[in-house]
Amino acid sequence: MKFTILQSNIAKSLNHVSRIVSSRTTLPVLSNILVSAKKGKITLSSTDLEVGITTYTNGKVEVEGELTAPARLLSDFVLNNNDELVAVEVENNQMTLKSEKYEAKINGISAEEFPTIPNSPKEVYCTISRDEFLNALKKVLIATATDETRPTLAGVYFDFNGKKLTLAATDSYRLAENKMTLDEEVVEKKAIVPTRTMTEVMRLLSSENIEKINIAFTENQVFFTIGETRLVSRVIEGAFPPYSQIIPKDFKVKVLVDYKEFVSALKMVSLFAKDAANNIKLTTKKEELMIASAETQSGGANSRIKAKTEGGEIKVSFNVRYLQDVLQVVSTDSVIIKLNDSAAAALIEFEKEKGFLYIVMPLKTD
């Protein structure tokens, strides 16, 4: 194999694939990136057997071939190289990289030992707006479970129905749901995609200036085509909880507050909530919302902000982090908090985020 490539091109490709590389594995080849040069295209691939990624870029190919090289060494050499061009040549499973000022030799492993990454089905299931999908992902990913003892909660739920796509996630303490409209009607389908996969999809979407992405499915896998990059992942077996049953339909109290004031108030109070398991208490008043931390050895704090309140007074405790997480991923001027009592789920909506809702369970306090 012999080819020449722009440093910027191979650096971008390495950034895409290097995060999928398995760092702890009994198979050394899984710590490597597969580099392939064929028909004027340079292809880089990596996999940890759960997720696989392949990305394509242009280069000048003189001799076709392929080899796997250790991801860390290859990435470090390329990403720290500020020369314009990088020449790559392979002989006897050794990769030589040369640029104007630098040269390195990296011992690789035969491409024959690299696991096969499945090709995408020829039939695309649906095409989605990159901007809308990225926006929806940012908002639901915050609610996925980090504990994989309940696998069906450790991912993002996809519910395709006609022209509607609903994304949802829950860790049983909170729920995020975002509904979006598709350009074309699709066959009904439901799937749960692992959080790690969707985090990588979000990262790819954030780095690519494209209008649309393609999604395809097989029986137990999902494929995302994002520009010149294709990511494949297993889907999680099992049924997602019937969460619509926990969304309250009616509320006794509705509170409208300014977004920026709410963010600032939570930040101040959270400084003292760290020693109390992030516990804060909200108290609704007719024209204000009071936010207070629990008293600890470090002390305590409270904030008061203007509010428009419908209904009576309610005192309810929350994990402040759950409130701050959602405020970081929305774009709005005002926040609407809907409550029933100190033990019931609260619904949080946002003026400019149509189709998105966030449910938070209160904390039990004495």
Features of this protein?
single chain, eight-stranded antiparallel β-sheet, 366 residues, alpha+beta, ten-stranded antiparallel β-sheet
Account of the 3D structure:
The protein is an alpha+beta fold and about 375 residues long. Helix content is about 20%, strand content about 45%. The protein is built from 6 helices and 23 strands. The chain has helices spanning about 5-15, 70-80, 130-140, 195-205, 260-275, 320-325, and strands at about 1-5, 30-40, 40-45, 50-60, 60-65, 65-70, 85-90, 95-100, 105, 125-130, 155-170, 175-195, 210-215, 220-225, 230-235, 255-260, 280-285, 290-295, 300-310, 315-320, 335-340, 345-350, 355-360. It has a 10-stranded antiparallel beta sheet. An 8-stranded antiparallel beta sheet has the order 6-2-3-4-15-14-13-10. A 5-stranded antiparallel beta sheet has the order 5-1-7-8-9. The longest helix is centred in the C-terminal third of the chain and has 15 residues, at about 260-275. It is elongated. It starts with a strand and ends in a 6-residue tail after the last strand. The mean pLDDT is about 95.
Distance between the termini: 70 Å
Main sheet record: 10 strands, antiparallel
Low-confidence stretches: none
By DSSP, the count of extended strands is 23
Task: Specify the structural class.
Answer: alpha+beta
Overall mean pLDDT: 94
Q: Helicity range of the residues?
A: 10-25%
Looking at the chains present, what oligomeric state does this protein adopt? single chain
How would the blueprint of this fold be written?
Elements: E1 2-6, H1 7-17, E2 32-38, E3 41-47, E4 51-58, E5 60-63, E6 65-70, H2 71-79, E7 85-91, E8 94-98, E9 103-107, E10 126-129, H3 130-140, E11 155-170, E12 174-194, H4 195-207, E13 212-217, E14 221-226, E15 229-234, E16 253-258, H5 259-273, E17 279-284, E18 288-293, E19 302-310, E20 315-319, H6 320-327, E21 334-339, E22 346-350, E23 356-360
